[in-house]
Structure formats: C-alpha cells, structure tokens
Design brief:
308 residues; alpha+beta; five-stranded antiparallel beta sheet; three-stranded mixed beta sheet; 5 helices; HNH_nuc; HNH endonuclease
Length: 308
C-alpha cells in the first residue's frame, strides 16, 4: 500500500487535550470500519501510564477494529505493570509518590504473560553451576525484577508507532491515514540502568542530526516518543520511553540504510567467565546514562542548541 510522506514541519498541538481523529479504516490493520467492529482507541493507553497522568494532557484518540484494540490492550497490561516496577535495588526512575502507589497496585493485579503469575510474584531467579578447573566448582544465583518478553515489547512499540505515523499522514477529507512502506526494524530495548550502553548512545548520537518529524511527550513524562527521518533515504529512526523505565529504539522504512547504521554502531562487550563444550557463563556490565548527556528526546535548532 502506497503511503504519503508524513509532514516535514513540526506542528505545535495543544498540550492540555487529546487530538481526536474520526478515521474510517483501522489504524493498525487497515480494515474498513463499520459500527459493528469499530472502537475508540487511546494510543497512549489510559492504564498504560500511572493512574491520572493523562488527565489534562495530550493523547491521540482514533478508531481501531475490535481485534486490534484487544490485542494492544493485552500487550499493555503486564508491560505497563512491569515497567512501573523498581529495579533490582528498589530504585524508581522518578520520585512520584502516586505513581509508586499505582505501581504497587498493578503488581498485585496484573499477570505476567511470561511467568503466568501476578507481577509481584514474577521475579526471576537464575541458578548456574559449573566447574572452573580441577577441584574448583562454581555456583551462582541471580535474582532479577519481573521481565518482559522483547518480542511483545517491540510489538506494542510497532502499534504505537503505526498510530502516530497514521496521524502524520492523515487526510481529513478521506478520513484515512497512511502506513509506512518497507519494514519495521527494532534494534534494542533496555531498562534505565543500561540506557548508557555503547549501542544506545551510538544510536542517539547518530540520529541527532536527522529531521525530527514527531516529538510526543505526555503523561508527565511517563510516555515519550520521537521519530526522525534520514536526510536522504526513506528510512525513519524512532525511540520510545515508557514509564521512566524502559527505552526502545529502531527504524522503519528502507532496510539497507538502517542496517548500515546498525553495523556502524559500537558492539556490546560481553565477558565470558566460564566456557565448556556444553555450558558457559557470560555477562555484560550495564551502563547508566548521565542526565546531562541524554539527548534522545531533544530537538535542536540550527545552532545546535536544544529547541525550546
């Protein structure tokens, strides 16, 4: 399906109220909508961010078919609950008391699709045993907070990106939006404690000069999205941040330019502690990102300064 290009000029939208579209095709699958299969869809799910955070703030509301709406809601449920949880040391990425209380409530109510248990009981333990040499045995146990399957994270990201691209290409006369050509190419997702790893930082610096096509920050910063376009190719870079905790990065559009950039990014260093024919133990040290070095969701003017 051929799609019009999204607008190249940034528009300021009212920050205190949603943008509502009355589209005639499903934003996610393109199905022609009818009264029997049409639902109203909040792209930033009202229960995806902490309770009340979208009150008086910007959102995108449009129409989707019932199966797509249900699919997205299923993804949002445990991903929201898990991304609101603290890290292994009990640290949150914010100091919002009401959001912490909401996280604790969701941990008791939402069920992890990975463990089939409620989120509060879904911490994962890894037990490793091996031999370093004659007479030297190794035993290691690690406990981590509840985890999200990366494929489910990237699927939710794909749906959110599709909705915002649809908005950017929306024709008010035909009441239809467009869908990007070519493919969807996720690169990495990681928690706050590793936002400063070489691959994430390399991506951030590489796309900094690309043309910003969309910057959406809402729910008191518990939802962030940026889309930038390659200066020469039909390739877009994107980044999402959920609940001050999890970031996802990637591309959509033409694959070759995206692949060339990924190939040029620094590799993540993995250290192997122990390796045998049928077993091994490797690890990678996480790298936090300093706040004053975080430019992922900033737009810069022609002088290189952040655009207010």
């Amino acid at each position: 399906m051929e799609s019009p290009a999204p607008q190249s000029q940034l528009m300021d939208l009212p920050p205190e109220r949603p943008l509502s579209l009355r589209n005639q095709t499903c934003v996610y699958c393109g199905l022609a909508l009818s009264p029997g299969n049409k639902t109203r869809e909040h792209v930033i799910g009202r229960r995806f961010v902490p309770d009340g955070k979208l009150q008086g703030q910007w959102n995108l509301i449009l129409n989707a078919c019932r199966p797509c709406n249900s699919h997205k809601a299923n993804l949002e449920d445990d991903i929201s609950a898990i991304t609101l949880q603290p890290d292994s040391w009990g640290r949150y990425g914010h100091d919002d008391v009401s959001a912490i209380e909401d996280a604790q409530r969701k941990a008791k109510d939402s069920r992890s699709r990975r463990t089939r248990k409620v989120v509060k009981d879904s911490s994962e333990r890894i037990n490793l045993q091996g031999t370093l040499g004659p007479g030297i045995n190794l035993s290691f146990q690690y406990s981590s907070p509840p985890q999200i399957d990366d494929n489910r994270s990237f699927e939710l990201a794909r749906l959110q990106l599709m909705a915002f691209f649809y908005m950017q290409t929306y024709n008010h006369e035909t009441r239809r939006g467009g869908y990007w050509l070519h493919g969807y190419h996720p690169v990495m997702t990681t928690n706050r404690s590793d936002w400063g790893n070489p691959l994430m930082v390399g991506f951030m610096r590489t796309i900094k000069s690309w043309d910003c096509r969309l910057l959406a920050i809402s729910a008191d910063g518990f939802f962030k999205l940026i889309i930038r376009k390659h200066l020469l190719a039909e390739t877009w870079a994107w980044a999402l941040e959920w609940n001050h905790n999890r970031r996802l990065i990637g591309f959509f559009g033409e694959l070759d330019p995206a692949q060339a950039i990924v190939d040029s990014l620094p590799r993540l260093e993995v250290k192997t502690v122990y390796q045998a024919p049928n077993e091994s133990l490797s690890y990678r040290v996480e790298t936090p990102l300093k706040e004053d070095e975080d430019t992922l969701f900033l737009v810069f003017d022609e002088t290189g300064q952040p655009d207010a």
